[in-house]
Amino acid sequence: MNSSAILVFTWAFVALVVGLYVAFIVWRVRVDRRRKAAEAGEGLGASGHEPPRSGISPDRTGRVLAAAARIAATQAEPEPVPDPAAVPSEPDAPSVFAGGDPAHGLADLLAGLVLPLDLVPSPQETTRADAAEQWTFHSQAPLPEAVLAALSGELVRLGFAVQPIDAWQVEARRGTAVVRVATHPDDRPGAGGILADVWVQPS
């Protein structure tokens, strides 16, 4: 067997191992959710009151997403405000989300999202050049692929068609909206874990 064939088999084996690990992480998350749901069901039968839903509650999810929006807003560079008297009147500029659906902000697009793998909002170091709006999240998960797979599953649940771009990035489409997710190790000193950038592209 020549060296090229050995190299191909080696990379195929590495890809298989990574794929199996990602599948295991997703399976483990789903098993934990089912177990929590079963425990909640037993609690309902014992007390006669409806227990809290498993996973992150809608109220907490809303607060987390709102916090991410605030972080993104505070990091946006302020633009100078022109003097209205000195600027001639012009027609309104078209929205970057033109295409018949103005509700293409991340807060609207990700409504109902349940953040997996203990993702929390994180200050973003840089804003991607093709981002009309960007949020950044942090997780202590061990692999970027695990975070990407879990977020992709949530986007599919919200009705997006998800296509992989590479091992650490996907593109999700719903109607005219285009959302991208990219994961990468958090290289900030003393941080560790994984960062997930979620941004919406102009239509």
Explain how this protein is built.
This protein has 203 residues and is an alpha+beta fold. Helix content is 40%, strand content 19%. It has helices at 3-47, 58-75, 106-109, 144-157, and strands at residues 120-121, 133-139, 161-166, 169-174, 177-185, 194-201. Strand 3 and strand 4 (169-174) form a beta hairpin. The longest helix is centred in the first third of the chain and has 45 residues, at 3-47.
Topology:
Blueprint (H helix, E strand, L loop, with lengths): L2 H45 L10 H18 L30 H4 L10 E2 L11 E7 L4 H14 L3 E6 L2 E6 L2 E9 L8 E8 L2
Antiparallel strand pairs: 1-2, 2-6, 3-4, 4-5, 5-6
Helix pairs in contact: 1-4
Characteristic key phrases:
203 residues, 4 helices
- Rg from C-alpha positions? 21 Å
Number of discrete helical segments: 4
SS content category: alpha+beta
Q: Enumerate the strands of the largest sheet in spatial order, edge to edge or round the barrel.
A: 1-2-6-5-4-3
Order of helices and strands: HHHEEHEEEE
The overall pLDDT, averaged over residues, is 76
Proportion of beta-strand residues: 15-25%
Poorly predicted runs: 51-56, 87-102
In percent, how helical is the residue content?
A: 25-40%
Major β-sheet profile: 6 strands, antiparallel
> Which outline best applies?
globular
Number of strands: 6
Question: Termini distance?
Answer: 50 Å
